[in-house]
Every structure is written in C-alpha cells, then in structure tokens.
Amino acid sequence: MANNQVDIKFPKGGVFFIVVAVALLILFSKSTVTIGPGEGGVVFERFGDGINTEKTYGEGFQIVAPWNEMIIRKVRQQSVSDEMNVLSVNGLEVKVSGTVWYEPEFSNLGLLIKTKGEDYERELLDPAINAAARSVFGRYTPEQLYSSKRDVIEQEILDEVQKLLKDQYLMVKRVLVKDVKLPPTIRTAIETKLKQEQESLEYEFRIAKAKKEAERQRIDAEGKATANKILSASLTDKILQEKGIEATLKLSESNNSKVIVIGSGKNGMPIILGNQ
To answer: What is the per-residue pLDDT across 149-195, written as a single tens digit (0 to 9) for each?
Structure first.
C-alpha cells in the first residue's frame, strides 16, 4: 500500500512574515495598558532615570514603550482602618480603633512613588497616623477619651497627620475614632461616676425649677396685693356715691316694680325696696 504524503510549502518569505507578525503582536501587547476608573499611572523608564515624575496618566487606553513599565495605583479617596494601643496622659494603656480617609495627589503620583515607593501607605501613611494618634491621646485622661472629647480628638489627630504629611504628596481628608476600649475596672468606674454626675445635675435642675416657681408665685402675690391696695385707695366716698347714683338711675329705668328711697342708705346711698 503506497503512502500518500502531502507536502505543504510556504511561499517564499512566509515564515519571515509570521515571525514578524508574532513579534509585533507581542510588542503591541507589551506597549499598551488600560488604566481603570479611579486610577492613575506613572511610567518607569527602564533605560532612563527610573520613575518619570513629569506626567501622571489618567484613565483609559495608554501606549508606552515596550521596554518601560506602567505603574498603576488608585488615586481616588481611599480608607484604611487600624487598631492600636496608646497611653493616656496618666499612663493607662488604651486600645483605640479608627479609620482614616486619604488620597494621593494625582499630579504628584510619580514623586510619591519615587520618594516613598509603591507601598507608600505602609512606608508613609501608617507611621504618620500612629505618631499623631499617640501624641493626641497622650494629652487626655481615660474619662475624656471615653466620653466627651471624641470630636476634638478626631480633629487634633487630623491636624497632626496633615502636619506630618505636608509636602509628602499624600492628603488625609478625615479621621474617625470608632471605639476606645478601656480596662473593665476603669470603664465601670467612669460609667458609675458619669451616672452620679447626671443624677446630681437632674437634682440641681429640679431644685432650681422649684425655686423659680416659688419666686414666680411670690412676685404674683405681691403684684395682686399691690393692685388691691391701689384699688382700695382709689375708692373714696365721693366715687362710691357717684357709682351708687349711676346704678340707681339705671334701676329706675327698669319696668320692674320697686321702691327707691333716696338718701336713706348708709352715707346717703339710696335704699332699693321691691321685687320682680
């Protein structure tokens, strides 16, 4: 049985064109990059000066030389949460958990990566947050940390972090202290004290309210007494006689049967006798 063999012959130069096409495809794939939403990119020039700090690439399709590398990082606002142990002003250890919102400066992303590395959160942000938190919490007592100073502490930590990161190409937007954990005995003592203070304030409020009510009643009684005194002093005999005469005249105009004796009453006031 004869073997049937089919010889496939490439046209002259065909292999060359295939090799070139494959090379171009590989070259193109290494020369293009897509930067996603909320991201930015900087070019690492392998045969140049390293990170190109002059330009930050925005979202979308970008072309770079195949021997260079595009480093892509998030440039939108991000958050990091952490828990740490700090000391209060009297040396008591307190466990604090919180969240920090930060954002790299888009136009200076190259400088940020060049000076602090790609892991700039660990190299730059974390140490700044830890230093600021320990500095601020060390100014307050456990009672202040647990109760009334939360908003003030958050603002002070933010101010400290922003001061530490000034001209470092990384912006911190907000600090939130989510929880402050004290030793159980200290926490119970603080809660008991706060409860007693609240009860004391309520008691003082009730006393103050009662005093104000008593004062109001006293002023009201004095006002009525003064008014009665003035009214009594103004009712002279002449005024009473005039009022009596006016009443007599009105009664005389009535159709009801009556007897009116003029001048027979006390102080010359009329006496009215009669019925309906």
So the answer is: 788 899 999 999 999 999 999 999 999 998 888 777 666 666 566 66
CA distance 35 to 75: 11
Could you tell me the residue ranges of all domains in the chain? Answer: 18-74, 78-182, 237-273
Residues 103-156 pLDDT 10s: 999 999 999 999 999 999 999 999 999 999 999 988 888 777 776 678 889 999
Structural contact between residues 72 and 63, judged by C-beta atoms closer than 8 angstroms: no
Q: What's the first-to-final CA gap in the chain, in angstroms?
A: 157
Q: Which residue has the tokens 């002003």?
A: 89
Task: List C-alpha distances in Å: 133 to 69, 97, 151, 152, 237.
Answer: 37, 10, 14, 12, 87
Residue with tokens 């006002």: 223
CA dist., res. 101 & res. 98, Å (int): 10
The CATH class of the 78-182 domain is alpha beta
**Long-range residue pairs from 263-270, CB within 8 A, at least 24 positions apart, any chain:** 267/237, 267/240, 267/241, 268/241, 269/240, 269/241, 269/244, 270/244, 270/245
